[in-house]
Every structure is written in C-alpha cells, then in structure tokens.
Amino acid sequence: MDAYHLSQRLLLVAAEVFPGAFLADIGSDHAYLPANLALKHQIRRAIAGEVAWGPYQNAATEIQKLRLTEKIKVRHADGLAALNADEVVDVITICGMGGALIAQILTVGWDKLQHFPHLPRLILQPNVGEKIVRSWLQQHHYQITAEKILKEDGHIYEIITADPAGGKVQPLNQEQLLFGPILLAEKNAIFQEKWQLEITKLRKVLQQLQCAKKEPVAKEQQIKQRIKMIEGVVNDKS
Q1: Which 3 state secondary structure label does DSSP give 8?
Q2: Rounded distance between C-alpha atoms, residue 173 and residue 166, angstroms
C-alpha cells in the first residue's frame, strides 16, 4: 500500500470524505489517506496527526516526497491536539484503533470541536469496540449516516460515518449499538461471518469456564445470554 494504492479499507474511508473538505486524519501513520485524497484533488487541505514519533517521521517523509507540504500539514501531537485553535476542519478520520481509544480521543478533544461554527463529519474505523464508538456518537448527538463492513487480509473491519444531528439524540437500542443500525438492517454475508465467528469464540470461552474447578456461574450466564442474542440476530431473516 502507498498513497497511490490504498487498501480496500482506506478506500471505503476515503469514499466518505466529501469533496473539497478540510480533513484531519488522526493517527495517520504514513499519511496515505490524506495524501491519496490530495493527489486526486478531492480535499482542499489536510492535517495528518500522529502521536508516535516513528509514524510521524514516516508521514512527514511521505508528504515531503510527494510534494504535498503546502496542502497537508503533518503534526506530532496526541489526538485532536494536532488541530490549531483557529483551524476548523470539515471531516475527522480516526482509523485502526480500538473503539475505547477512539472515544477517548474524541472526548478529550470535544471542547475544541464545540467551538467550531459547525461540528465535523466523523469517519471512524475501530478495530474492536464498535459499540463504544456508537455509544459515544449517540451521547454526543451524532447521527450514524453510513456503515460499511469488509474483510481484508483475514480481518473484518467496520467503518462508521456520523454527522452532527443538530442536538438531537439518535434513538439506538442495545442491539443497534452492538451490531450497528445500518449493518443490522442489511445483514450481509460479512456481517453474518463476523458474528458467527463471535459465537464460536464465546462457546470456547464457555467451555473453558465449565471446566474450571469452581464454575463462575454469573459469568457463564452472561455469555449464554450474549450467544442467544447474537444467534437471534443472525438467524432472523426478516
């Protein structure tokens, strides 16, 4: 993968960035995503933020090599600290982290975002903990407008796009928070595969608990209920 050839995962993320946006890519790694969009003239400018020194250097080298330094600013910063006080971005992308970390980054930077004349679109790709991300979006009056699920290199990824809902709370129940309101409505083959794998994993955990000298009954019951809920969703063809 490079700035000219994104992974399928990042291509789906890129497709959610609207034309002419001022983009902030947080945890940008090599800055391939903003660089690709800049090379295609799909964004007007971007910030590539990276907290780790090695990836920051990689991103800075990449942007310099591609002669995109006027359009993309690479910054060594933690989360939304990469944005200067006078910079109002239209879109924020955060990809390839755990859902808890994504939520933490957004929470720490929330005060900064609230001073924007308009809240940005959020395009989030958690590796795990998607429910945490959806709960954060609901609590902060964001509306989930698109969800994608894909399998690449043996891993299944979810991409969640959310736009400000004008102070309204999106009414999501527990199933929608866990599975995703749009993914739950579609239930495509990759969605089915992901949750069948989760059932298999939970059953293995259950077997291990049942072999313990002192069975943790409450934990077993919790896992059984989760399996039952997932099976109810994947087996429901309506």
Answers
A1: helix
A2: 20
- Dist CA 215 CA 208 (whole Å): 9
Cα dihedral sign, 108-111-117-118? positive
Contact 228, 170 (CB under 8 A): no
Are 35 and 64 spatial neighbours (Cβ–Cβ below 8 Å)? no
Alpha-carbon separation of residue 124 from 42, 70, 209 (angstroms)? 19, 26, 34
Phi-psi region of 236 (alpha: psi -120 to 50; beta: other; left: phi over 0): beta
pTM of structure: 0.93
- Write phi, then psi, for 180 (nearest 5 degrees): 95, 125
pLDDT tens column, 214-226: 767 788 888 999 9
Burial class, 28, CB count within 10 angstroms (exposed 0-12 / middle 13-18 / buried 19+): buried
Which tens digit of pLDDT belongs to each residue from 92-108?
A: 999 999 999 999 999 99
